[in-house]
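Quick sanity check, Leucine carboxyl methyltransferase 1:
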Amino acid sequence: MLQRRDIDSVGSDEAVIATNDDASSCKRCAVALGYWSDRYINYFIRSTTDRKAPEINRGYFARAVAIKILVDKFIEVTNGNCQIVNIGAGFDTLYWRLGEEGKTVKGFVEFDFPGVTSRKCLYIQRTKQLLQAVSDEDYDVKLNRNNLHGHTYKLTGVDLRNLTDVEAKVKESDLQYSLPTLFLAECVLVYISIQKSSQLLKWIAEKFKSALFINYEMVNLGDRFGEVMLSNLRTRGCDLVGSEACQSTETQRRRFLDYGWVGADSCDMMGVWARLPPEEIARVTQIELLDEQELLSQLFTHYAITTAWTDHRWSEVQL
């Protein structure tokens, strides 16, 4: 998914924005191989012959399936009387996949850089299957270059580092502070400075009294493997200015607990993998041969899913 960082360089922002295409391409590859089902990803990313390594495909599978399980649990507990906010959403297709399964919520809002939302708006506008899903016979879709407002679906361009603009966009998107709200972020906060991301998390905790946050992000960046990850991203012009919070699962927990969230839990993807349905693990391990299990272990120990909540009842929404 798309990431953020607190710098003024337009060129650097563009480098970060470009990671959205990389992540979308990886998801499309894994879906094409049968790791999970997503018939909407093809509308946002063109076919590619660039096949990804098996450990990358399994990594994206674990990420996608684990987050979907958590989202489904949240919707089930609230009986759909909730809203979802996907920050740094990129070309994520969750809204359409939920609709296909008959799972509805009161509101679904996606925030991202205008440079991304403008492209997503275009793809939705020109694709009948996508546009119909965000339309309602009693509600006209409002669309401009960077924003799309449907009945329950809102796509809005905003810089997450500017809290004043974020608050204004939240209001424009008809989000209700009193409604149970699920926030999603996949490799987003790490590209925002600690100061700015902390302000954002504190603001969410103060405004949304019944919120659950699901954060997928790097951890253990202090070892050799982590240093290589950092170096590779810097080579592309992407500095992880928020990496201070990504040193361990404990620092991931503390970033929430220190700024108003009443509880938090963090588990690296090795632990997440062990909690996924055994039948699904058995199925996907037959898709591709993985010669080097160590590569998968290294990858899984350097990413984690962290959940945090402002309402104690969401502490039960776990894998």
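Posting the structure with no commentary besides this: The CA atoms of residues 33 and 120 lie 24 Å apart.
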